[in-house]
Amino acid sequence: METKSRKSEFELMYDKYKPVVCKAIGMYVKCQATIDDISQEVFEKVYKHLKTYDAVKGQFSTWIVTIAQNTAIDYLRKAELSATRFVDVNNYVKDSETTNDTSNFFIAPDLCDKGIDQHELKQNIAKAFSNLSPKYKEIAVMYFKQNLQYTDIANVLEVPLNTVKVTIFRIREVLQSALKHEYSLL
């Protein structure tokens, strides 16, 4: 009886969150068949680890989207797509003490695909970053460069945690949008 009840709860969850999961995966993968495959894997993970979800740590939707994003990234890492140029904006943060020089803020890592011109990539990311609004730049520096957690940024800026989460999501969207014509973004 408990299995049947739990199964119907899972079906309700699946119906409710499938569009959100597919959208999150679609930020990384463009092929609908692959999105469907990855979403199935996501829901298998969610079902398997449902007991580990902790409402104190965050909303369920955030938890499931994080699983979807990580699963999509894992898929791309496993796939042998050497002909495609992939860029993860999060991997291009320069580790230096100065935050005022945005032209040198981002760098291309050594592990980057050999098909990508490192200098061009650095310039394109720096340009995209310099086009951010001052409000976005401040949070971007705190998150990408200083490696502050969402809660730390919220405390420093004295803003709600959700505001920080949404702003970082929008910063990623702006940077990815600015770079998508040049690179397939992770």
What CATH architecture of the largest domain do you see? Answer: Orthogonal Bundle
Tell me the overall shape.
globular
Stated plainly, the CATH topology of the largest domain is called Arc Repressor Mutant, subunit A
- Mean pLDDT reading: 75
Largest sheet: 2 strands, parallel
Q: Measure the end-to-end span.
A: 43 Å
State the CATH superfamily name of the largest domain.
Winged helix-like DNA-binding domain superfamily/Winged helix DNA-binding domain
Estimate the helix proportion, in percent: 55-70%
Helical/strand content category = mainly alpha
Short description:
By secondary structure, this protein is mainly alpha-helical. Helix content is 61%, strand content 2%.
What does this protein structure show overall?
Helices cover 61% and strands 2% of the residues. The chain is an all-alpha fold. It has 2 domains: 2-78, Rna Polymerase Sigma Factor, Chain: A (Orthogonal Bundle), CATH 1.10.1740; 86-185, Arc Repressor Mutant, subunit A (Orthogonal Bundle). Strands 1-2 form a two-stranded parallel ribbon. The model is unreliable at 80-86 and 94-115 (pLDDT under 50).
